[in-house]
Every structure is written in C-alpha cells, then in structure tokens.
Amino acid sequence: MKLFDRLKAANEDVWSVYTEHDFVSGLQTGQLPEKAFQFYLKQDYLFLMHFARAYALAAYKADNLADMKAASETVTALVDTEMRLHVEYCAGWGITEAEMQAVEEAPENMAYTRYVLEKGMSGDILDLYVALAPCVVGYGEIGARLLVSANTNRDKNPYLPWIEMYGGDEYQPVSDAAIEQIDRLAKTRFTEARFDSLSKTFREATKLEAGFWQMGLDTLRR
Predict the structure, then answer these.
(1) Is 118 a catalytic residue?
(2) Catalytic choice (108, 141, 204, 209)
(3) Looking at 90, 108, 135, 141, which residue is catalytic?
(4) pLDDT tens digit sequence for 97-125
C-alpha cells in the first residue's frame, strides 16, 4: 500500500469530513451561496502564494536534483500559470486581482498555510509533502467524485466549471503525481517509526483543509 493510502486510511474520519463537507455539497448541488464562494476565491488567491512558498521550501529541502527540479517546476507553474488562471476565473465572478491583493487574510487561511510551512521548516521534505497532500490530492478526489456523480447538478450550476477543472484531465495527473512523489520520497526517508508522526501531520492538515471550506460558510454570518 502506498504511504498516502495508509495515511488516508488511518485518518478516514477527518478525510471524509473534509471531502464531504457542506461546502463541497453546495458545489455539487449548485446551492452554495455565491457570497461564500467568492470569499473562498479571494482567500484562495492568497493561499496559492503561500503554496508557492511551500514548494520553494521543498526545493531547498531536496537533497537531489530530481526532487529539486520537481519542486521548482511546481513553483513556476503556480506563479506563472495557476495564479494567472485563478485571476481569469475570478474575473468571471466580478473579482479583480487588485481586490484579491488587498483582501485581509482570514485566520483559517493563516492557520493552514503557516502549518504547512512550519512542518517543512522543522521537518524534512517528506514531512512537507505530507502536509501539502490533503490539498493537492483532496481537490483531485473531490473533483473526480463530483464529476461522475449522478447527484451533481449539471443544469445551470455555476460551480460546474470548478468541478470540471479539478475532476478533469488537466488536474487529475497533478493529484496522481503528488501521491507518487510521496511514495518516491518514502523509499529513502520513511521508516515505520515515522508513521505516527506523519499521520498526525496528515490529520492536522486535513482538519485545517476542512476549516478552509468552513471559512467560506462562516462568512455568511459575518
């Protein structure tokens, strides 16, 4: 069994809370309040910047050229492509880049992104990739499930493009590659003595991801 699959199996309770969150259900039905989604989009802009920092840290933590190249290529993809696509997508929701740059970072955003960076700083590259996995792999799993589900609303669902983006052929290889990268790193860095620590990191990161969804819903009460 791949290390990611073991981590997921050991934390299935929090994983299901994350991947089946009410925010996700709202995307599926199309009934998620637009205010909640727009707040999420603005915070996700800031999140992507910190995500790029995390992969830059992975390049620093790498001890071979292949891992260094993989991390640096991800930084380039995030900064040059992913953020541009995010800005273009948000423009369709009436959100400008200047507005996203000026938005105040939510505590939930800070909690997750700083947790990932702290794990990378205090641990090794495997710790860092495990902390990143709930986001990278989780979005792929959510997208793939919603894309094929008979319960997904495809009739004038404003969130269908989001589902198609993460469930489609462009993103699924990204999710698969993240799982494979953890497995490659595990070959030289993983021991059974590390499992409990890595599982705790995976669990906390997954809970923080669920908190990121909840952040969007909580804005309705602010």
Answers:
(1) no
(2) 209
(3) 135
(4) 999 999 999 999 999 999 999 999 999 99
pLDDT in tens, 127-136: 999 999 999 9
- Mean of the per-residue pLDDT values of the chain: 95
Question: What's the topology of domain 3-221?
Answer: Heme Oxygenase; Chain A (1.20.910)
Distance CA 204, CA 103 (A): 26
- Give the start-to-end residue ranges of the domains of the chain: 3-221
Q: Examine the residue annotation and report whether 20 is marked as an active-site residue of this protein.
A: no
Confirm whether pTM is higher than 0.85.
yes
Amino acid at 212: F
Q: What's residue 221's pLDDT? A: 83
